[in-house]
## 1
Amino acid sequence: MVRDGAATVVTGLGLVTPVGADEDTFWAGLCAGAGVARHCEELAGMPVDFACRADGPDLDEAVGGRAVFRMARFVKMALVAARRAVADAGLRPDRWDGGRVGVVLGVGVGGVSVLVDNVRRLDADGPPAVSPLLVPMMMPNAAAGEIAIDLGAHGPSLSPATACASGATAIALAGDLLTSGSCDVVVAGGAESVVTPLVVSAFAGMGALSARTGDPAAASRPFAADRDGFVLGEGAAVLVLERAGDVRARGGRARAVLAGAGAATDAHHPTAPDPDGRGAERAVEAALDRAGWAAGEVDHINAHGTSTPLNDAMESALIARLFPHRPSVTAPKGVIGHTLAAGGAIEAVATVLTLEHGLVPPIANLDAPPPDSGLDCVTRNPRRQHVERALSHSFGFGGHNVVLAFQRVPSPR
């Protein structure tokens, strides 16, 4: 437990997602509980020809300025989300001490479409055709770097790559930077944009993607008995984190408390989760320990819920084993697909909004969980529930497990 003034709090949220690029639209889309996957022209002829694309806003227009030409799509999404999060926090980059501001932006892959395009140029026209901007556009840390440039953030700038747990890892690291005193403000989250024929073919070849090409919107089915794989998505989400005492001193607003975070590694297999969930269990226990909570105090779990047979089986058994009091469970990937490195950050935003609204979004395409799962999944319609304490799970290829513990901000006395 930490002193109240030293507690890490969330003060700003920003998003670009397949279901909306502003907080209200995103939340309404999650609560509607309908998948948004669709056939994509660029995937025509691929084994899987659908995905969850983040179609709005016009990213070039939203970013603006001459620097837009040097940014890959994932960087543009991250920058738009970061600007919105900072504005939501009520902070002014032209007035802060940039040396005390950090940026932690998780990215798993980077600018793969830029790389593929330049490989084609090289094959067709030789070395002179390769763009001198290839390296700065494809490198995964470009998002953190461009955000730091745009915001004048001169503190630590980090880009963790823990696959599908990258966004959650970034938020956990942000909490550590604040707790250690290294920063006063941290802009943290995740971004990913890899909806390309190359990546889709690779995931399809390994059997990870849903093959429901006849009904894309119904393909992502977390915890459903007939799930057959995930749906690839794209997006970005950024949270602004500060110490509670600093927020009060500047007259700001805390939206949620990041009470704790835990991380552990399966050390089991490059892509498959440990079926016994031992790494995930250690991450949950570490998050609870950091938060000072007992397992029975958790009201709600935002599950990783990929809609893959192995991950959902491991996670449902984990939740049933550790939380026999049956907290409510949701899984946003049923609506927005799997946004890879952005997933943990987008779902952290969803968890914060659940705490604020007292409403749990339903899991899309799930009428009821298997009767032997032991889970209290929210299905069909959003559920009104006062949630005081919630966990957000993120599990990634490579066996990376990260769990974030969020607590509702107490009402003013």
## 2
Amino acid sequence: MKYYHVPQDFRWGVATAANQVEGAWNEDGKGLSIADCERYDPKKAKAGYKVANDITSSEIQKAIKDKKSDGWGKRHGVDFYHTYPEDIKKLAATGINTFRTSIAWSRIFPNGDDPEPNEKGLKFYDNLFDELHKYNIEPIITLSHYEMPLNLVLNYDAWYDPKVRDYFMRFAKIVVDHFHKKVKYWIPINEIDSILRHPFSSAGLVKDRFPNKNFEKVIYQAMHNQFVAAALITKYIHENYTDLVVGSMITSTMVYPYNSDPRNSLKSVQVMRESYNFSDIQIRGNYPLNLLSKLKKLNVKITEKELKVIRDNTADFVAFSYYSSICTAFDTTGLKITKANRTEGVYNKYLPTSDWGWQIDPVGLRIILINLYDRYQKPLFIVENGLGAKDSLTESGKVHDDYRIDYLRKHIRQMLISLENDGIELMGYCMWGMTDMISASTTQMSKRYGFIYVDLDDLGNGSYRRYLKDSYFWYQKLLSFGDKIPKDYLDK
């Protein structure tokens, strides 16, 4: 029998985010976050991610006044705050050794600028990490994952304001100090490049709060503040806890030219370059000249001291999300447009699409692995990869999600082929997600990612009961093979 060989220290896991699963939005001292202001709107969801995540000050005020969780998916999540012991027990039974999630900033500092942390918030994560370690599951923790305290938007200027950078540092230091014996792997900011595509959920930026400013400049100033903050907490961790490991994280969507027209090839290079700029800064320690030139034209405030902090405090590994690919063209007139992870591009006739129009491209994952490793020669970590789909629960409590199994099988196969043939270093793979969760892009429940079904609809109705999908058992069997995976399990 032929096998794919996996390094013995390879980390197999699942991934999620606090704002998409925890719920308990107003319990045990937690403050209101920007995620709690994102309401499911079917019309906006169909219009695309940018429309779904544009928000105004008046909409935020409406959210504040509404004290219910109905329709506000990220307020109730899937109740992981209360169900984590049983959920982790189910996860452990698959054989995973890694669990990626985030710490809700507003659960530790309800307003962001509080003088002291919320002890009940710290206690929750103490209990969560203890539960993971009970099953020998290593947590990978993201410090900022689309859920900053709303007060930092209302009474400051969100990430545009250097004070918010300072408040983040206080939060991050307290969290790292408190959990350094329980958490080895840290990611400062989730998909740090996402600020260009969705400035509100990524950085708390509301356009109408900057009426006399160039909003593009606001976004790039906030971006710079995030880079400085990420470098500062990396410095703090490296200087104080030498056994801990810090990663950068970007959104990796493979981009192809629509055809062999050189102008389309150039366009694809430009789009990919924009993504790589963000990992360049955190791995190489310098702003690429093309981005630095743009910041100078926008008069973004950058000091030599800040540049030195970024230069001297680079990340230890490159984490990334990968879901799909797109094509690009210098002129899209008359071309079919399709969606991808929080972006969109030209339809690729060679690839199938998901229920939400994302094109499924396993080979694209292999190309991303090659490109990132050739670029940085640093360990890589796939911290998100999965399929959002419409799942059906049978009367007997089954979910037959062969389409998800097919997606996972093909992507994991390409990952293992790359490990075997492409000379890359890969730390691990985390499927997105664990249980079903509230979609980050559309705030709906019916876009399901997990291998554990949760009985809940888009409006928050349901029993919250858990049911194991077919993909759960497929992943469990995959991990049972250990470091030698039979090729016929994946080469179907």
